Amino acid sequence: MYEKEVIEIEHLIKKQNRWRNKCINLIASENVVSRRVRFMAGSDFAHRYAEGHPGERYYRGTSYIDDIENQLKTNLKILFECDHSEVRPISGTNANEAFFSRFVKPGDVVMVNSTPAGGHISHHREGSLGKFTRNIIDIPLSEDGYHMDVDKTTYLIEKARPKLIVLGKSLFLFPEPVTEIADVCQKYNTKIMFDAAHVLGLIAGKQFQRPLLEGAYLMTASTHKTFFGSQRGIILSNMEEDQWRKIDRGAFPGSSSNHHLDTLAQMAICAYEFMEFGEQYAEDTINNAKALAAELDRHGFDVQGKAFGYTETHQVAVNVREFRGGEKVSKTLEINDIILNMNMLPHEPLKNHDRPDGIRIGVQEMTRVGMGEEEMGRIAELIKECIKDKKTVKEEVNRFRSEYQDVHYSYDVIKQDDQQPIILAELKN
Length: 429
Ligand code: DSN
Hints:
This protein is of the alpha/beta class. Helices cover 43% and strands 12% of the residues. The strands form 4 sheets. Strands 4-10-9-8-7-5-6 form a 7-stranded mixed sheet, sandwiched between helices. The longest helix is centred in the middle third of the chain and has 38 residues. The chain binds D-serine.
């Protein structure tokens, strides 16, 4: 009865595959997985359950996922130089909730980055954190808006004695001063949580700060922005065993039951890819972001963070108010197959959230498909032609992107005998 509808959905999936493969994809929270990882999607694990930990499951039939999950946990501990890794949350928000639910009690004071300052929705009153306490206060910022004001924050920690301070954010240009606040936090027993969703790959690639070595109590993250995917969440820490056991219960049974074994198995491959190729990838990604920022500045755009070298991450933020704001600019770019998102900037009031001044650009996906600094120059030119010169650049965007179809920093280049040709044919549809 519904076969026509099923066929229509299949068409939509294929259209999406074809479309985003022709686009310049600049959403800072996305990335692509290698073909080898993509080919593993839809394995038998997609049908299975494995609640609990490897070797102590509530279900039978889990020996292979036990082996895979153990390898992933071990490799994450190596990559992030830590004692504990929790891989069962199925998203970054799910990882945050696993922690908040076991650590934050009603009335506890928690300090966070505000939404305009880039704080993630799960850190806020309306998001996950708000389910556990309403006493949420914003971290004071320095005048430029992209850095913490360490003196004011120290003062607030002394006065408000927060139980937790949440660092790391979604508009994330520069490192957080974990080392600078570690002593005062220790003095008042304020734990530092670092949400590394955006910068996980930059940390693993050793091109960014190392929060767990600098004094963070734990690090949460999603796994698919600057890390190689698949789409999941993790928690990493060096905390004491008895504390970790509580967080562990927050992940299961607290915030998930089955933990989506299909993407877990994919993630185990992604971790190996990152161990081999991640350092170079992280370095190239940051260099590309800096190059794109400088070129956009040269074309006259109001690129944020200029006094600090624009960015130390995969992101570039631009104030496009003079072009009728982020909503208008991101729509115009989308019509031309350049995909990015509008974003509030730190100077804006919350009420601007659906018509913000800014756009946020992430270069991590285009870096993974092989683009370098020269290509960043071309992307800046295309954005300028589209927004400042009001030209249609869609055809040129598609032509340009057609030259970057392979996923680099991966084992895709190694032929898998009978399998590889099938993958290539499938993805070209
Ligand atoms: N809100 C996402 C972003 O930064 O785009 C992260 O969950």
